[in-house]
Amino acid sequence: xxxxxxxxxxxxxxxLSTKLVEVLDYxxxxxxxxxxxxxxxxxxxxxxxxxKTAETFPFEEMRPEHHERYIDIHYMISGTEKIGFxxxxxxxxxxxxxxxxxxxxxxxxxxxxxxxxxxPGQYAVFMPSDLHRPWCSAYGTRSVRKxxxxxxxxx
Length: 155
Hints:
By secondary structure, the chain is mainly beta. The protein has a single domain, classed as Jelly Rolls (Sandwich), CATH 2.60.120. Helices cover 10% and strands 47% of the residues. It has 2 helices and 12 strands, in the order βααβββββββββββ. Strands 1-10-5-12-3-2 form a 6-stranded antiparallel β-sheet, with no helix packed on it. Pfam families: DUF386. InterPro entries: NanQ/TabA/YiaL, NanQ/TabA/YiaL_sf.
């Protein structure tokens, strides 16, 4: 997992892979006031962008998840979201696997989970080995707007 914002992008980008810099640069270039909620293809590598406004829920009501085929980038447009994070290990047992097209595996609980807060302008990058619990309330249930960039591992 990687957390950042674009305030120090000029120096931080040199620490990242070329492909990650490319997709984060794309995300940075968007003016989200002019982007409606929806799903948008990005280029020809199978990358796609989801822009979504949604309610958050109490942490305990949301399930940790991970994706095998995609790197999952969460960018907070407005509101504050709590996200659980843990590294995958053999003690975490999946409870539901959504078909490969959706690429979601859900867990009831995970060991050594930490909670992070994502504020407007910040992003979190979750690799396939990262379990994450998105859409959790940070300060009571409230609406957030965020962008999710799905980058195929093969890209």
